[in-house]
Amino acid sequence: MFDSVIIGSGPCGISAAIYLKRFGFNVLVIGKDYGTLSINTLIENYYGIESINGIDLIKKGINQAKNLGINVLTEEVVKIEMGNGFTVSTNKNVYACKTVLIATGMKRTTLKIEGLKDFEGRGVSYCAVCDGFLYRKKRIGILGTGEYMKSELEVLKRFSNDITVFTNGEDVDLDENVVCEKIIKIEGENHLESVVCENNTYDIDCLFVAVGVANGSSFARHLGILMDDKEHLIVDNYMTNIPGIFAGGDIIGGIKQIITAASDGCSCAYKIKDYLKEK
Amino acid sequence: MFDSVIIGSGPCGISAAIYLKRFGFNVLVIGKDYGTLSINTLIENYYGIESINGIDLIKKGINQAKNLGINVLTEEVVKIEMGNGFTVSTNKNVYACKTVLIATGMKRTTLKIEGLKDFEGRGVSYCAVCDGFLYRKKRIGILGTGEYMKSELEVLKRFSNDITVFTNGEDVDLDENVVCEKIIKIEGENHLESVVCENNTYDIDCLFVAVGVANGSSFARHLGILMDDKEHLIVDNYMTNIPGIFAGGDIIGGIKQIITAASDGCSCAYKIKDYLKEK
Q: In B, what residues contact A, Cβ < 8 A?
């Protein structure tokens, strides 16, 4: 069992890992990709480094952690569950741990589908565990193509046999009903009633959105972590409302600079250390 | 007039300067020396830099600022005064500014003289402006040798002609009464009465301590900035109780890591920007 599993290999996650490792804890970092920083071309405001490419800084950080003997895995976290401590499931494995640090950043797959926003809470949901039971034996739609969608799909299968996967134009290999058409809009009166695609209209009772990869706010929704209206996780001294789950970096809001994220990581490590020692 | 004068050229001060400069403000950094970090030999927990000497990191930061066109002066700040904005006086010059950032770190000249601590508030003072008037026309002692002592001495001269400078064994060239003997202890009943030196005992009514350089807590005392019992400046969103005077890094307490100090600098810059824009 790991003392801490850190989700995210950006400035916050890696900085936390470096401190936790040096505190003597058994830590694992799981990062899916290079996050928001991979978009930033040139960074010239990070104290101590005059000029560096975003992606180079991320790689540098990961190597720094690896050279300290920290395990940094490139896997996709699909869910976090509570039990005896926590279990973090990726597309490849399951990891048990005493604490979790959510340092995923705020990268979000934005979906511009007419009507999607309007039906949030009225048929459109972002969390199978939270809302699946509302649609027991109903016609369930799920939107997505990747590992995260598959993980949500597994949950929804407990509630209904009538499930349609909407890929919004992509191909995907699944045993379920799959609609690979582009989605034009979501329709309904007070509640979602149908998904209008290029060639056909599909009548369903709900649509679960699980596009792209699970991010900080997906984990928060599934676990009942409090968020503000901008989907930043609400923390008190870097701990969320769930004891043992910490968060830092862009996902908790603030000025979203690299230096503040790296500093958050350090502060998170101190708080995690205190939490583990109290246990 | 500068938009901001930053006192301290460590991680907090330089990081703030980089951000303020890039926000388009006219900023000046004044640093006396390499601070606490010059003692740290090897830094291996700073995100993005695998291993670096403390002094090399400080030099790197200063060069980074200079290459952005920021003026970084090696002068000793002896006082900050309020007026139309603020004036920051060094051993060489006076600088007017709209805001001040105190990022001096917590390096403190510790003095181990028997009785000194016991008579704090009862004859021993650390602030001429604050307590000088209490000893009008009395026998005033002042302890110190440098620019900061001279600056405090100027203030004390307004209150008394009977001033003795104690150097605690060092030589100093001054027109005042100078005692260059080592100090053994401070004596008195309820209130300080005399300074016992190696060869003689000197009867005085008070002793102003102005050893070494003025640091964050000296400035705080002179300006009435609130401090906690560990002499950390108390800030609300990086601003002290004096509007326009900000503080960050070790001087405000917390976990005192390089990464958190550099992050504080960035956060201070954002707060200073907001303050200047409101004005």
A: 11, 14-15, 18-19, 22, 44-50, 52, 57, 60-61, 63-64, 67-68, 255, 257, 259-260, 262-267, 270
The total number of structural domains in chain B stands at 2
Report if residue A113 sits inside a domain: no
Question: Rounded mean pLDDT of chain A?
Answer: 93
Reported ipTM: 0.85
pLDDT tens by residue, A96-109: 999 999 999 987 66
Chain B: give the shortest CA distance to residue A242, in Å.
24
From A209, A236, A251, the end of a domain falls on A209
Report helix, strand or coil for B117.
Answer: coil
* Domain stop point among A209, A224, A256: A209
Those residues with Cβ within 8 angstroms of residue A39's Cβ, 6 or more apart along the chain or in another chain: A54
Which residues of A touch chain B, with CB atoms under 8 Å apart? 11, 14-15, 18-19, 22, 44-50, 52, 57, 60-61, 63-64, 67, 255, 257, 259-260, 262-267, 270
The predicted-structure confidence for B90-114, as pLDDT tens digits, reads as follows: 999 999 999 999 999 987 667 889 9
Q: Report the C-alpha gap between A134 and A18 in whole angstroms.
A: 43
Looking at residue A144, which CATH number applies to its domain? 3.50.50.60
How many angstroms separate the CA atoms of A264 and A43, rounded?
19
